[in-house]
Each structure stands twice: as structure tokens, then as C-alpha cells.
Amino acid sequence: MENSNIGNSSLNSGYSVFEQAKAEYFKKQKTALWIYYITVGVFLVPFLLILSIFLSNIFFVGEGMFDYIAMLFFAIFVSAIIALVYSIFSSSNKSANLIINKEYNNYRSAYKNYFVRNCMKRYFTNLSYSQHTGIPKQLVYGTGMIKAGNRYHSEDCAQGKYKNVDFIQADVTIQNRTADSKGNQNVVTILRGQWMIFDFPKKFNFRLKVVDKHFGNADIKVDKDPITGRKMKRIQTESISFNKQFDIFADDDFEAFYLLDPSFIYNVEKLADSKQYKLMMCFIDNHLHICLFDNKDFFEPPYKEREFISEADENKKVCDQISTITDFVDFLKLDHKIFK
């Protein structure tokens, strides 16, 4: 009973810290918005007054509407004012963001410490969770699954056991940023989603890659595998629907079909159809790497106050995201004897 009271006290304390951080953040957010609106209004209202006077002189006084010189000056004037207003909008918006940045980071940290960590404890054992660290890019690129970019970021790394299956999961964002000769920048997002690694006692001496045909940035070059040194070959299963949805590559046909039995194929299709993401998976040695492209980051708090409904709703949202990890173990039966 005493331990239970200590646990409840800890939870209550954690929620109190979150509530305080949430109140501070939304309070500063409102203050920042008022600063933003007032700053813009100070410059926008005089501009509209000047503009109305200018237009009335052109269109309602004499034959001003045919005065092309006046129209030219009017066009220059409007262009200059638009550029000025845009600059003010941008700078005031940046100032507003600077005001709330510290409070948002505190709010985000408190949210993850309370909701994410506590929800994970319900499902996983040997849990280690860090919101600021992720999966190293060498590990991701070393699989040969995804095209590389010149920007890589990973966070919200969770590591633990589920049904005696070891796993690592984290958000991963890969981008490629380029600039032309004029300095115009272009950013292409190669991946924004989740990367999961499941560990098995059984060692696979081959490589198998299953890629959703809509996963545009997957590395599907059919060449020598960087790990085994054997050439990857495109193969097809007996399932027509699976072959239509996925590209399959392996460096050993026999071993690949050992894993791609009808039950496994059915469950992969079922998972892919039930979720809003593009899926890629790869068996390497005794690991299964799973990459999901859903253009989302997991475990993020509501950005606006009206989006936060209740503690119960946030718990449900986080648990639903955690189920993405557990579903792969449950649907694919990764804890069964085929992987031992």
C-alpha cells in the first residue's frame, strides 16, 4: 500500500509539473501573439490610411486616373510598402517565437516526461527513453535502405523489451539542402517518420528488403549488398496483391521465402492497410529494421491551447503512437519460434 501511495504521489507530482509548464507556455503564447498583432497594426493602419488617400486622389480628382506618371509612382510606393510590411511581419513573428521558445521547450519536456514516459512503462520492460537523443545516422545509412541527405536529425529514442523482444525506436528526419548560383535554397525531405530496430536471438545470414512501391526515397538499387557482399535480386512471392504493393529484394531466395510465408505476408499487408504510412522493412543479420514515412514526429504536445482536451485524451494519443511499435511485434509474431 505504501509503495502504491509513493507511485501515485510521483504521478501527481509529474502532472503538476506539466500543468505548470503548460500554463506558462500558453500564457506566453498569448502575450507573444498580442505583441505580434500590435507591432503589425502600428505599421499596417497608417499604411492603409495613406493608401486610401492616395487612391482617392488618383481616381476621384480630375483626370488623375489617366495620369500614368502618378500610376507609376503609386506602383513603386505600393511595392515598397508591401516589402516593408512583409519584413515587419517576419521580424515580429520571429520575435514572438523567441519570447515563447524557452517556455515551449519546458512545456514539451514536461509533456514527454509525464505522458510519454509513463505510457511507455505500461508496455515495455528494461525501458530507456531520451527525448533529446536518437538513432545514429551511421546505423541508419549502414542498412542501405534509404537515400542519404546532407541533413540528419533523430530524437525521442526509446529502447526496451516488449514480449521479450528487444527494440529501439526513434523519430528520424533526413533532408537534402541545395542552393543554386543565385543563392536560392531548396530543401527536399527524404524521410520524416519513425525508425524501429527489433533484435532476435536467431542470426539471419542473408538480407531481405521489402519496400512499399510508394516509398519514393528508398534505396532500391540492385547491386552488391554492402554487408554480405552478395548481389541483391528482385524476387516475387506467390501473393499477387503483395507483389503489387511491395518491391522485394533478397540475396538468398531460399532464406527469403522461408520468412515470407503466407501468414507473414498477410500480416504485413494488414499492417500497411490499417496505418497511414509508407512502409519499408529489412532483415539484416539478427535485426529487423522498419522505416515508416508518415511525415510526422511522435510524442509531440499540442501546440495550441484549444488542442489540449484532457489528460485522458493525451494518454490515449500517446498510447496509440506506442502501439505502432507493439503492433509490429504482435502482427508479425516476432516473439514466435521462427525468430528464435
Give an overview of the whole structure.
- With 340 residues, the protein is α+β, with helices and mostly antiparallel strands.
- It folds into two domains: 2-109; 124-339, no CATH class.
- 49% of the residues lie in helices and 22% in strands.
- The chain contains seven helices and nine strands; from the N terminus they run ααβαβββββαβααββα.
- Helix 2 (68-123) packs across helix 7 (311-331).
- 25% of the residues are buried.
- Mean pLDDT is 80; it is low at 1-7.
Short précis:
This protein has 340 residues and is α+β, with helices and mostly antiparallel strands. It contains seven helices and nine strands; from the N terminus they run H-H-E-H-E-E-E-E-E-H-E-H-H-E-E-H.
Distance between the termini: 40 Å
What gyration radius follows from the Cα positions, in whole Å? 27 Å
Q: What percent of the residues sit in helical stretches (DSSP H or I)?
A: 40-55%
| Average of pLDDT | 80
Number of DSSP strand runs: 9
The structural class is alpha+beta
Count of individual helical segments: 7
